């Protein structure tokens, strides 16, 4: 059992455990550059990506979610009776009615626990964060019955052949939430921005592939950083610095974690936070080298000026290495994981930082989902994270994957295209590379019902 759970008023609600699952295969982005015939560094430097997770026809949203939940329960000695709330955030929809959460309830059968609230939540890459907020709200509400909440953020990010394909990936995160946690969410400071845009969407229900305007989507991401971060600084300062006239700045956060569509996008976003700080205090001498860009303010031109973008990335270069890069190991080696992305980045940070580096530190998090929905929020590490490091082992697990050639990667993508909505189908991909404890698809019957086995 993780933590001390009882029916008293919950305090220090936050994260007790994290579990990360990624596919067993990957393609090297340098090799993919050569295969695609693009300039050297286009993916590795231009996007900040090193490797990308690859799925074959054995894996779907149900299988990766089953894997990450069962692994978390086993590693932390939980009983399924301990869980009273389960919600799944995903945009990898394989059924327009039946939720992934109901599939996960098969894991609860032996325990006899069917009293579990929550279903699936969908909005592009934001669904996992919305599910976390719902789980936190449940624990803090009058509906809480003393048990733990579990959130699954999981997706398979696939793109059609073309410039967006290298920004794919796949992953799943399980997040165990309850009171008396070592990672505690700050209350009353969440800052959200939502609006109606067409930067990325999936209207073709027979395809995994989205319709995406990559450049416009990047602009929408940065606009949401502006809106959420500027509001967060006001809410945070009012709650935690009521007697100070100075708003919190990005430098006051010990670490910053972002939704990582690409790692280069994260670097741009961190620079934009500093730009927001400068606009609040443009005469401060620390901004002398970039003060000229204050003239743009929040104008439309500020989102398209490459000089501003490069200047702020250069201005924050050292802080970026210290406060952001520790969170990007999974992102650069797995790729975009949609709903799981920001939580995989948090997992990378927590699994790599020592207690000395992370204890009593505050982490700012930015989650973005196209269409769009975004929130900036924060948490504080108030107890040892040794258990997270012991169980996650992200670097070790990633090192044990199997590399596939770009040619084989292309073949696997074609296989997924051709079999995406088949019935009466038995997957053909080899299961020998799957890690121990991985669920995989064994059959889709004539009524589209899916069955799974575990290695």
Q: Could you explain how this protein is built, in words?
A:
The N terminus is likely disordered. α5 crosses α6, α6 packs across α7 and α10 packs across α12. The chain has 14 helices and 17 strands. The strands form 4 sheets. Strands 1, 4, 5, 6, 7, 8, 9, 12, 13 and 14 form a 10-stranded mixed β-sheet that branches. The chain has a 3-stranded mixed β-sheet with strand order 3-2-15. It has a two-stranded antiparallel ribbon with strand order 10-11. A hairpin with a 5-residue loop joins β16 and β17. The protein is α+β, with helices and mostly antiparallel strands and 455 residues long. It has 2 domains: 232 residues, Thiolase/Chalcone synthase (Peroxisomal Thiolase, Chain A, domain 1), CATH 3.40.47.10; 195 residues, Peroxisomal Thiolase, Chain A, domain 1.
Summarize the model shown:
The protein is of the alpha+beta class. It is 33% helix and 20% strand.
Q: Which key phrases capture this entry?
A:
Peroxisomal Thiolase, Chain A, domain 1, 14 helices, three-stranded mixed beta sheet, alpha+beta, 2 domains, 455 residues
Write the layout of secondary structure elements.
Elements (H helix, E strand, L loop, with lengths): L13 E8 L3 E4 H8 L14 E4 L6 H15 L7 E7 L10 H5 L15 E2 L5 H13 L8 E10 L11 E10 L4 E3 L5 E4 L5 E2 L9 E2 L1 H27 L14 E4 L4 H18 L25 H10 L1 H7 L5 H6 L6 H12 L2 H4 L3 E8 L3 E9 L4 H7 L1 H6 L2 E3 L1 H14 L19 E6 L5 E5 L1
Parallel strand pairs: 2-15, 4-5, 4-6, 12-13
Antiparallel strand pairs: 1-7, 1-8, 2-3, 6-7, 8-14, 9-14, 10-11, 13-14, 16-17
Helix pairs in contact: 5-6, 6-7, 10-12
């Amino acid at each position: 059992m993780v933590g001390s759970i009882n029916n008293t008023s919950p305090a220090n609600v936050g994260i007790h455990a994290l579990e990360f699952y990624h596919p067993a295969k990957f393609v090297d982005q340098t090799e993919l550059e050569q295969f695609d015939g693009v300039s050297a560094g286009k993916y590795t430097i231009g996007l900040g990506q090193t490797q990308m997770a690859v799925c074959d026809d054995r894996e779907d949203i149900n299988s990766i979610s089953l894997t990450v939940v069962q692994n978390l329960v086993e590693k932390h000695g939980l009983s399924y009776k301990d869980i009273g709330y389960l919600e799944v955030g995903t945009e990898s929809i394989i059924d327009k009615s039946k939720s992934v959460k109901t599939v996960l309830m098969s894991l609860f059968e032996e325990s006899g626990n069917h009293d579990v609230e929550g279903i699936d939540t969908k909005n592009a890459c934001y669904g996992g964060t919305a599910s976390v907020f719902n789980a936190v709200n449940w624990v803090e509400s009058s509906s809480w019955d003393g048990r733990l909440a579990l959130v699954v953020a999981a997706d398979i990010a696939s793109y059609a052949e073309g410039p967006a394909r290298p920004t794919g990936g796949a992953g799943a995160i399980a997040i165990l939430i309850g009171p008396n946690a070592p990672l505690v969410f700050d209350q009353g400071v969440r800052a959200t921005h939502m609006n109606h845009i067409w930067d990325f969407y999936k209207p073709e229900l027979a395809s995994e592939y989205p319709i995406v305007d990559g450049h416009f989507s990047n602009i929408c991401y940065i606009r949401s950083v502006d809106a959420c971060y500027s509001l967060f600084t006001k809410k945070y300062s009012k709650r935690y610095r009521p007697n100070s006239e100075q708003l919190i700045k990005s430098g006051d956060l010990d670490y910053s974690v972002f939704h990582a569509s690409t790692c280069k996008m994260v670097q741009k976003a961190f620079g934009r936070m500093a730009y927001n700080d400068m606009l609040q205090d443009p005469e401060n001498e620390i901004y002398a080298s970039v003060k000229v860009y204050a003239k743009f303010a929040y104008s439309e031109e500020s989102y398209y000026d490459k000089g501003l973008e490069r200047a702020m990335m250069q201005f924050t270069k050292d802080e970026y290495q210290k406060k952001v890069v520790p969170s990007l190991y999974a992102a650069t080696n797995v790729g975009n994981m949609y709903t799981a992305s920001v939580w995989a980045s948090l997992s990378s940070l927590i699994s790599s930082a020592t207690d000395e580096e992370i204890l009593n530190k505050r982490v700012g998090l930015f989650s973005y989902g196209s269409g769009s929905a975004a929130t900036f929020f924060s948490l504080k590490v108030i107890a040892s994270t040794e258990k997270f490091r012991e169980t996650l082992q992200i670097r070790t697990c990633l090192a044990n994957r199997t590399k596939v050639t770009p040619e084989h990667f292309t073949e696997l993508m074609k296989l997924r295209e051709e079999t995406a909505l088949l019935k009466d189908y038995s997957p053909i991909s080899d299961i020998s590379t799957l890690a121990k404890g991985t669920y995989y698809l064994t059959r889709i019957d004539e009524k589209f019902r899916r069955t799974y086995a575990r290695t």
